[in-house]
Specification:
The chain has 63 residues and is an all-alpha fold. It has one domain. The chain is 63% helix and 0% strand. Helix 1 runs antiparallel to helix 2. The radius of gyration is 17 Å and the shape is rod-shaped. Keywords: Membrane, Transmembrane, Transmembrane helix.
């Protein structure tokens, strides 16, 4: 019996744009002025945005 042709993987453009956008936000937060002068949450926000960006890119490549 013939094997079915493997499905071609395509990049999800919405997830890719979201991933790149969150990485850009992380870079902006790390390089920009402190948005919250009393609390320095830049590192937390940058790491969170970076991880979300990497996750979205990984999800877009997985499909």
């Amino acid at each position: 019996m013939a094997e079915p042709a493997p499905r071609q993987r395509r990049v999800d453009p919405i997830a890719l744009a979201g991933g790149l956008g969150t990485i850009l936000v992380a870079a902006y937060i790390l390089g920009g002025k402190n948005l919250l002068p009393d609390l320095d949450l830049r590192w937390f926000l940058a790491v969170l945005a970076g991880l979300m960006g990497i996750g979205l890119i990984a999800a877009s490549l997985r499909r």
